[in-house]
Design brief:
Blueprint (H helix, E strand, L loop, with lengths): L12 H21 L5 H11 L6 H8 L3 H13 L3 E5 L7 E5 L1 H22 L4 H15 L3 H4 L3
Antiparallel strand pairs: 1-2
Helix pairs in contact: 1-5, 2-3, 2-5, 3-4
Amino acid sequence: MDQTGRYRLHASLGYQLSLTSRLQERRFDDQLKALALTRITWCILLAVANEGLPHPSAIAAFVGIDRTAASRALRQMEAAGLIRRNCGRDDRRTTTVGLTPRGEDMLARATPLARENAAHFEAKLNEQDLADLHRLLARLRAGEDAALKHL
């Protein structure tokens, strides 16, 4: 709000956080396009390979998407040869996900892009500013665990 009591969108914390996030995401999205990946597929590759999450529900929770969106992305990734899905032997409803060699290759090719994108924005801050930003963002998220589960 300004002195007149009007809400000023561009001065709001939410707007500034969203704008900064979109700038960083858009830059990374453009880099991922060259590999025919999206941020969702990139996050799923990370969930499976780096976090060791083999089940669609755990992958969806890690990425912050619902089960339907995760299933759709997994189907597309399987068709693209990035992942393989296997049904459980005892319980056919249990599905596990693993990377294919192509998926591992794409993860290896995209990881430097993610690091470069993060470095591009982090380089704009000194070490103390970056530490302060992480601390302040953690403070803003404190107590919002229930809301994070729905992202």
